Amino acid sequence: MKKIVVIGSLNMDFAVNVKHAPKVGETILGDDFRLTPGGKGANQAYAAAKLGGKVTMLGAIGDDTYGQMLMDNLRNAGVCVDYLKKTKDSSTGMALITVDENSDNSIVVIQGANKEVDIPYIDSMLDIIKDCDIVIFQLEIPVETVAYAARRAKEFGKTVILDPAPAQCDLPQELLENADVIKPNENEILTLLGADDSLALDNAVGLLREKGAKNILVTLGADGSCYYGQDGSEIHVPANKVKAVDTTGAGDSYTAAFAVNLSEKKDIKSAMKFASRVGAMAVMKAGAQTSIPTREEVELWAEA
Ligand code: RIB
């Protein structure tokens, strides 16, 4: 099996159920507080390992209890955490999450140690990157680090997957060019372009391509996902209909599942179908890593 390296964030998630996310100046009451492991990078590493991938996580934690808990949780799922940076200068990243009555979330990330994933750290990890096949990035560590690491990964001939979340406008062109697959959701693709929702998806895809993107995989929530290949191909996979409890981490598990199937040499459409199933299963339980199914559970669910 091919090896996957995830370079990204680790956060401790503080989540609470609310009727709606608070408006400016509003105090609201919440319910059912949860403290669970998260961080887009760690969620992807955890999911990829649970789904049968051979995974190493690169990132940073503080020298504190939350960092230790996050590291232990990844290790228990089979992720190699030997090369995580442990810093005394910042505390472990955190995320404050509200989950509303439609099961949709709002998230504030306090980057903490994630900010310390810098270029010297990547330089000290080049042998790990050289030794893998697929590298997955998100944007909760400094974007210049992501751009640099993606450039080095491409120089070594690796497959680069970029999950551009949290999305930001005007990503470096070289980062878009170095991603073999960029996987925004329908809102993120607009944010990447600085556009509003009057821009149709096909046009957004065209504009992102003009900025250097190659293959673009857009997740569309209840409408499934759509892959726009560099060669002009278009693949649509419908969503699996489920009753959502909490959408936190669903996008991360989609990305991870897609990468695991690619690492098994499955074709794009099969990888999208697998990823859709995993994403659907992830919304049926609360939390990010706590909601991710095992490979066996996904296969049983597919047969049912
Ligand atoms: O994508 C979900 C994740 O976003 C959460 O786990 C939270 O930590 C934030 O990084």
Short description:
By secondary structure, the protein is an alpha/beta fold. It is built from eleven helices and 14 strands.
Summarize the topology.
Elements: E1 3-7, E2 11-17, E3 31-38, H1 40-50, E4 54-58, E5 60-62, H2 65-76, E6 85-87, E7 93-99, E8 105-110, H3 119-124, H4 126-130, E9 134-137, H5 143-155, E10 159-162, H6 173-178, E11 181-182, H7 186-193, H8 201-210, E12 215-219, E13 225-228, E14 234-237, H9 250-263, H10 268-282, H11 295-303
Parallel strand pairs: 1-4, 1-9, 2-7, 5-6, 9-10, 10-11, 11-12
Antiparallel strand pairs: 2-3, 7-8, 12-13, 13-14
Helix pairs in contact: 1-9, 7-8, 9-10
This protein binds alpha-D-ribofuranose.
Q: Over all CA atoms, what is the radius of gyration? A: 18 Å
Listing every helix as H and every strand as E from the N terminus to the C terminus, the arrangement reads: EEEHEEHEEEHHEHEHEHHEEEHHH
- The overall pLDDT average reads 97
| Largest sheet composition | 8 strands, mixed
* Shape descriptor: globular
* Helix percentage: 25-40%
Query: Numbering strands along the chain, what is their spatial order in the largest sheet?
Result: 4-1-9-10-11-12-13-14
**Which runs of at least 5 residues are low in confidence (pLDDT < 50)?**
none
Number of strands: 14
Task: Give the DSSP E fraction (strand runs of 2 or more residues).
Answer: 15-25%
Structural class: alpha/beta
